[in-house]
Amino acid sequence: MSTQSWFVYLLQCDNALTYIGTSNDVERRFAAHQRGLGAKFTKINPPISILGVEKFVDRSSACKAESALKRRTKQQKLAWAAQNPYDSP
């Protein structure tokens, strides 16, 4: 059984858009998004910054939280980010 932590993250992208994803390494994933690798959305709307991050015990929990967050309004997503600010290493 893996003990690796997983994270849900919210990115600020070009055109005042946001992107939500999951990863076990947020910094690596953000760098990949910035290079145009990964999600089609972030290829079209390059990410500018990481707004929020929340840690989960496993991938399943993170994916469920990601799905729930994606159903929220933009204002609710930004409020979530304010409650879960990203602290760069």
TrEMBL record:
Pfam families: GIY-YIG
SUPFAM superfamilies reported in the protein's UniProt record: GIY-YIG endonuclease (SSF82771)
Gene3D superfamilies reported in the protein's UniProt record: GIY-YIG endonuclease
InterPro entries associated with the record: GIY-YIG_endonuc (IPR000305), GIY-YIG_endonuc_sf (IPR035901), UPF0213_domain (IPR050190)
Domain spans labelled GIY-YIG: 4-79
Family: Belongs to the UPF0213 family.
Entry protein name: GIY-YIG nuclease family protein
Source organism phylogeny: Bacteria, Pseudomonadati, Pseudomonadota, Gammaproteobacteria, Alteromonadales
